[in-house]
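Researcher: Next entry in the queue.
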Amino acid sequence: MKIILAGHNVDYEAIKECRESLDREECLTPETISAAYARISRNPLPVYELRKIARAEVEKARRSNRNIVFGMGHSSIAEHAVFNVDIIGVSRLIVEEIEKFRLCSYTEKSQRYIRLEDDFVIPLEVRDAGLEDVFVETVRRQNSLYHELYAGLKEYMFEKHRDMLSDPRGRSTVDGWAKEDARYIVSMATHAQLGMTLNARNLELMLRRSAAHVLKEVNEYGTKLYDATGNIAPSLIRYTEATPFDLTARAELRKAAGRLMEKMGASGEGAIVAKDGNVVLVHATPDGDEKIIASIMHSSSDLPMDGCLTAVYKMDSEEKEEIIRTACRHMESYDPPLREFENAGFSFEVTVSASCFAQLKRHRMATMTCQEYNPSLGVTIPTSVREIGMEGRFMEVISGTDEIYGRIREVSPQAAPYILTNSHRKRVALKVNAREMYHISRLREDMHAQWDIRETAERMVKLGKKVMPLTLMLTAGKDAFGQIKGK
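Model: Structure for this entry, 487 residues:
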């Protein structure tokens, strides 16, 4: 056996320094790795020799990539070229658009831990509509209240949790609680910063989607992303223009859905499985416990699936529980359940604040689709804001924000959400399998999780347990997993 490191990500400034001492700087491209791996299937040479050949013949490697990726359609070859990208000064709103690409990796500046300054994006749509002054005035009013809230919440939190202040980590935690609750009044125009890692295949898709987006900031983001990456691996990034599908499908669907909903007289009420506060369980796999237990039996025996299902339906509840407990007996809080747990799942609709959604969207193995932020859904006000007597001031700023939102929406509907705050809500449709429910539970039901996402996760798990009590019986936050497992 040979395990050979073929390459790894290197700071681009270091690459530029190396180029100065190389006669053939063009070999410093991830395209050679893609080209070498593409040849594995048809060339008997060991892969490290294929990489050596590709480095010596970069233009030939690029022609090979173009033929294989775009001619033959083997797009997975482009996944071997990986980019790390700094993203600075974009709005909090379009971070949601960037992070829709779930096969990429992101690390974002957290408004929970970092005290915010007053920097924000002024959308071109707002400027073109002649509403820049009222937009800026509203955002400054929000930011002013943010600083007031932070000061008041910090004093309140320090008094309430005096026992934690002697430890520097405890003091930092309490200070973070004040920051994370104060941020609920900050707008989605606020500047964000993140690091992103993605392969060339997903980069090309991101560029196409950005070109087709209705927001000019997203268009600009796509242009600058291409400027930063396009010349690094040109043989792998080719189709970057907006497609008719990306340009028109969503707009046409909105028109069709609106027309048909009006015709059918839809009331917004329908059949659901269960509801708890802001979480609605819309659907769950019928006999989900039995299907997952049968999947475990199938991978652990020689029986066909129909035989496993027949056997499971003959079991009593104790026998079914024994299978689940055996599957999870040696699992620790850092272990994911077996993949068989993906064979049943849940469809939820959750109504969440922007702050909550910022965390929920990180669960990229779920399938998420969203409505726009909607002031008619109200806002989420941290309990601590009420306890320091600032709810009135909070709602005063929200009322002014909603008024300006309405004015912007009349002339530029797509840009109106910029002015809304982290407390504003939207509806999210969320499909998640039982394995991912364990991940959500471990991370978001944990005592260290932020309260907004924790409450949402607790309700999701509670409703899930009603229909799959055996499958989800060991769900718990990391802090409580040992206790739950020991029962």
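Model: The mean pLDDT is 91.
Researcher: Noted, moving on.
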